Structure prediction request, 151 residues.
Amino acid sequence: MREGTTTVQGNLCGDPIALRGGGARFRVASTPRFPNKSGEWVDGPALFVNVVCWDRMAMNVVASLRKGDRVIVYGPLKTNTWTDKDGNSRENVEMGADGVGASLAWNPVDVRRRRRDAAPAEQVDVPSAEQAPPDEQAPPEEDEYGVAMAG
Prediction:
């Protein structure tokens, strides 16, 4: 039976680390923000989640994401327990990622599709702005929030 799935949105605490065996490990910090009684936005307590992923997803995470990137991660949580070198019982919570993505709420993302026969995270031929027709080279006008306006 499959465990319950949790979704966390937050920022990477550091660059993802490639693991032996085709995995990757990273940490996500999620800090809620809310208005206080006077209407000022304040930070709530931060939640730090250790995340591990495997195979193609792991290679793409290491190739694509960096410290500070806003991400959305989902998967089951599990508790790891161990005894440290001083004999103390320790535990942490870890998410086994079923999915990892950059949050489009904060930054635009350039998605590169890979060919079926391409290695993971391999750059695929994508037309550049220099190859586009002249009328498509100009960036769209943006509103005061930096959102592209329809032509």
